[in-house]
Amino acid sequence: MKQPVGVILAGGQATRMGGGDKGMLQLDDRSILDHVLARLEPQVAAVALNANGDPARFADLNLPIIPDSIAGFAGPLSGVLAGLDWAAEQDATHIVTAAADSPFLPCDLVPQLLLNESNGLCLAASPSGRQPTFGLWPVALRNDLRASLNDGLRKVVQWTSKHGAGTAEFPDDAAFFNINTPDDLATAKAML
């Protein structure tokens, strides 16, 4: 298997944070997205950002910005599909996804996903359960995912289970801590 490309999922509406781009909030001296990039970029062949709206707001990141192809904020699977379509244009066989609001993602995320894949699919898990926005996804299943989304499917685990996805177990919930509220941002600052 070729080294996968990375897709950072930032296509949500951030309603619990009051709207806007959570990933652009400052965590210490860098944005949350800068923290995510610092951990994901060394593990993948290339990185793109899945985000909706005006891509110019991310110009400083120097990343390809890929919007959802399914209208109406259809959830993380829509971002995965956008990433798979982009990866197909790059001649990649797989993508690895990570949430834009999770600055402490594991530095061994990609090797562990590859080690535990089944049918080219794998989701990360921690003691609190599966982490469905952190996964390995095969480009070969993008048309199946598109059909499932068009049929109304929105649950990541429902789709990955149908395809026999593997699970990569990580020992620490903190690696998947995500920043959804102002209190979460304060907690993340204390975790640095």
TrEMBL record:
Q: Which cofactors does this gene product need?
A: Mg(2+)
Q: What class of enzyme is it?
A: transferase
- Reaction catalysis annotation: Mo-molybdopterin + GTP + H(+) = Mo-molybdopterin guanine dinucleotide + diphosphate
| Domain annotation MobA-like NTP transferase: ranges | 6-159
Binding residues annotated for Mg(2+), in chain numbering:
101
Give the UniProt record's GO annotations in the biological process aspect.
bis(molybdopterin guanine dinucleotide)molybdenum biosynthetic process
| Self-association state and partner proteins as the record states | Monomer.
Note the SUPFAM superfamilies from the entry: Nucleotide-diphospho-sugar transferases
Q: Name one Pfam family in it.
A: NTP_transf_3
One annotated GO molecular function: metal ion binding
Residues that bind GTP: 9-11, 22, 50, 68, 101
Name of the protein: Molybdenum cofactor guanylyltransferase
Asked whether the keyword Lipid metabolism is assigned, the reply is no
- Species the sequence originates in: Cognatiyoonia koreensis
